[in-house]
Design goal:
The complex is a heterodimer of chains A (116) and B (108). Chain A has strands at 4-7, 10-13, 18-25, 31-37, 44-50, 53-57, 64-70, 73-79, 87-94, 106-107, 111-115. With 116 residues, chain A is an all-beta fold. In chain A, a hairpin with a 2-residue loop joins β7 (64-70) and β8 (73-79). In chain A, the strands form two sheets. In chain A, strands 2, 4, 5, 6, 9, 10 and 11 form a seven-stranded mixed β-sheet that branches. In chain A, strands 1-3-8-7 form a four-stranded antiparallel β-sheet, with no helix packed on it. In chain B, β7 (60-65) and β8 (70-75) form a beta hairpin. Classes of the chains: A mainly beta (116), B mainly beta (108). Chain A binds chain B through residues 4, 31, 33, 40-45, 48, 50, 55-56, 88, 90, 97-102, 104-110, 112, and chain B through 30-31, 33, 35, 40-45, 48, 50, 87, 89, 91-101, 103.
Chain lengths: 116, 108
Amino acid sequence: DTEVTQTPKHLVMGMTNKKSLKCEQHMGHRAMYWYKQKAKKPPELMFVYSYEKLSINESVPSRFSPECPNSSLLNLHLHALQPEDSALYLCASSQLPGLAGNNEQFFGPGTRLTVL
Amino acid sequence: GQNIDQPTEMTATEGAIVQINCTYQTSGFNGLFWYQQHAGEAPTFLSYNVLDGLEEKGRFSSFLSRSKGYSYLLLKELQMKDSASYLCAVANTDKLIFGTGTRLQVFP
C-alpha cells in the first residue's frame, strides 16, 4: 500500500459547524503533514507531526486543530471557519521527519473545503 | 526571508522539449524537489537534487546549482498528459517550501 488516503473528498460547511478531515497512510511513515492550497497557488504548510508529536505549527489560527491519534492517522478538526478558509487541504507523509536524503513526501488527493 | 520563483505559465508543443526554471533564496537548504500536480489532484514526486549537477529519470531531468540558487526541470518528448503545474520545492530542515508553480500547457 503506497498511498495516502483522505476523507471526505469534498466538504461544505457553515461558519458555525464543527467538522473533521481525516488522513491515513499504511506505509509506516513517521512524519505527517497538513497543507492548505488555494486555487492556482502552491501548497502552504500548516502542521508537521513527527513520531505522532506536533513539531511544527506555522502560526495557524486555533480554529484549525490537528490531532495524530496513532502513527497511521492524522486528523484536522475544524470549528468556526471563515469563508476565506475555503481551499484544498492536502495531507502528506514521509518515511522520516526531516527532508534530507531524498525523504520525499507522498501526498493524498486532498479534501476540497467550502465554507459558506 | 524565503523566496522561490518560477515562471507562471509556459506553453509547448507535443514532442518538443521544455525547460522550467526555478530560482531560490532560502535561509536553509537540504535539497530541492520537483513535483507535478494535475488540476484538482495531489502533487506527485518527480525528482530530488541535493548535489550540483544533472539527475536524469526517463523523459524528465533535473539540474541544480547551489552556488547560483538555481534549478531547472527538463521535460523531453512532451506528451499531452504532461499538461500540469510543476512545483519546485526547497527542503529546509523539516519544512518543504514550495515555489509559485509553473502551469505548463502542451498543444498538439
